[in-house]
Automatic annotation (TrEMBL):
<dbReference type="GO" id="GO:0034587">
    <property type="term" value="P:piRNA processing"/>
</dbReference>
<dbReference type="GO" id="GO:0003723">
    <property type="term" value="F:RNA binding"/>
</dbReference>
<feature type="region of interest" description="Disordered">
    <location>
        <begin position="264"/>
        <end position="287"/>
    </location>
</feature>
<dbReference type="GO" id="GO:0001510">
    <property type="term" value="P:RNA methylation"/>
</dbReference>
<dbReference type="GO" id="GO:0005634">
    <property type="term" value="C:nucleus"/>
</dbReference>
<dbReference type="GO" id="GO:0005737">
    <property type="term" value="C:cytoplasm"/>
</dbReference>
<dbReference type="GO" id="GO:0030422">
    <property type="term" value="P:siRNA processing"/>
</dbReference>
<protein>
    <recommendedName>
        <fullName>Small RNA 2'-O-methyltransferase</fullName>
        <ecNumber>2.1.1.386</ecNumber>
    </recommendedName>
</protein>
<comment type="similarity">
    <text>Belongs to the methyltransferase superfamily. HEN1 family.</text>
</comment>
<keyword id="KW-0808">Transferase</keyword>
<dbReference type="GO" id="GO:0046872">
    <property type="term" value="F:metal ion binding"/>
</dbReference>
<dbReference type="InterPro" id="IPR029063">
    <property type="entry name" value="SAM-dependent_MTases_sf"/>
</dbReference>
<dbReference type="InterPro" id="IPR026610">
    <property type="entry name" value="Hen1"/>
</dbReference>
<keyword id="KW-0949">S-adenosyl-L-methionine</keyword>
<keyword id="KW-0479">Metal-binding</keyword>
<keyword id="KW-0489">Methyltransferase</keyword>
<keyword id="KW-0943">RNA-mediated gene silencing</keyword>
């Protein structure tokens, strides 16, 4: 018999099933029970909608071996994401009730239930649907009928399996679907992995939730990782400072271009191509860089809008208006309004007394 080959591999199709659900329904709190090597959690980690990601497994060693795959890296601190994410890994049994798993939008149990003994399976059903009661549960488990298409499979698919259900056993209590279809001319055996999706059709009362929250914690925390995000004041402040002060510096550099003596300006651009923008004609003033030039400046702007927007020199102080920095789309997106911009750069830049401009000391005579 031709061995059945799944493309992509079956485990990836199971994960894809969950990812498609997440794409469609955008759950915020997601837990994976029997998460083992945390592979599903790892792929779900950067789904923007997910704010809390939890893994539970009875095997602490497997969690400890893989938990590093879920901790934030230096790159996450350099570029914090817009949305917040907390990842918790717990060691414990799915037959135990712990408030840590209350209030979830989605709980997945991928190839878990067949590892539970009959008693534990009964307890788990009560824990999952009675206590945890998430909005949605996705359960996948092997389909025993498919095993005739798996030549190497003589008993159960895995020595630790306590049972493998046929479709009827599973279908009697679930909305029925699955991944891993048999070839077209194969027998009608159903999917290789059977998948059940349960959706809660009632709203839990606050009183009931409160009662459950009072249960004693029993799981052991193996990992608690909070990813840096722009939801946190300190990371937002850092991001604003980085982008705003970079642009302020660029505005300053562009402004000062016009004072660079012509020859030097040409030298520094001796690799210019024809494609580049023509040089600012103000540079025609040549290299006689003296204070006459600076006193020629500022040509203070005419309209009020210009006044708010354009950098200008007063003596040896360059004013870079916050309004101009605020017009940079990324700055606007991060700050929302000018007051926030002002607050977040205070302390990192010197501001004018009215707080409307960043000040730079410039020494035009000795700068070029
Ligand atoms: C086949 S593995 C799950 C694979 C994983 N969900 C995936 O898709 O990659 C089954 C996992 O269930 C865990 N497990 C078995 N009994 C458990 C229990 N009572 N409570 C929590 N986890 C349990 C095992 O330690 C094992 O890691
Ligand atoms: Mg299994």
């Amino acid at each position: 018999m031709e061995p059945v080959v799944f493309k992509p591999p079956l485990y990836q199709q199971r994960y894809q099933f969950v990812k498609s659900y997440v794409d469609t329904y955008k759950p915020k709190k997601v837990a994976d029970l029997g998460c083992s090597e945390c592979a599903l959690l790892h792929t779900l980690r950067f789904w923007d909608c997910i704010e809390v990601l939890v893994g539970l497994d009875i095997d602490e060693d497997v969690l400890r071996r893989k938990m590093h795959t879920l901790t934030p890296l230096a790159a996450h601190y350099l570029e914090p994401s817009k949305t917040s994410l907390t990842v918790n890994l717990y060691q414990g049994s799915v037959t135990q009730k712990d408030p840590a798993l209350l209030g979830f939008d989605l709980i997945t149990c991928i190839e878990l239930i067949e590892h539970l003994k009959a008693d534990d399976l009964a307890d788990f059903r009560e824990v999952l649907f009675g206590f945890m009661a998430p909005f949605t549960v996705i359960i996948s488990t092997p389909n025993a009928e498919f095993n005739i298409l798996l030549p190497k499979c003589t008993g159960f698919r895995h020595p630790d399996h306590k049972f493998e259900w046929n479709r009827r056993e599973f279908q009697s209590w679930v909305e029925f679907t699955g991944v891993g279809e048999p070839l077209q001319d194969s027998k009608n055996v159903g999917f290789c992995s059977q998948i059940a999706v349960f959706t809660r059709n009632y709203t839990e009362s606050e009183e009931s939730l409160k009662r459950k929250m009072e249960y004693k914690s029993v799981y052991k925390t193996v990992l608690h990782a909070v990813y840096p995000s722009l939801q946190e004041e300190k990371y937002l402040r850092q991001a604003v400072q980085k982008v705003a002060l970079f642009h302020a510096y660029q505005i300053k550099a562009n402004f000062l271009q016009q004072f660079i003596p012509k020859e030097e300006n040409e030298e520094s651009h001796n690799t210019d191509t024809e494609d580049e923008e023509p040089h600012n004609t103000d540079n025609e003033h040549g290299h006689c860089m003296d204070l006459k030039l600076t006193s020629k400046w500022p040509t203070l702007p005419q309209t009020e809008q210009d006044e708010n927007m354009e950098p200008f020199l007063q003596g040896d102080t360059l004013y870079v208006p916050l309004q101009k920095i605020f017009c940079v789309p990324k700055v606007k997106e991060l700050c929302g309004n000018m007051d926030n911009l002002r607050t977040m750069i205070t302390g990192e830049a010197t501001l004018s007394t009215d707080g409307n401009a960043i000040l730079y000391h410039v020494d035009l005579e000795n700068s070029f």
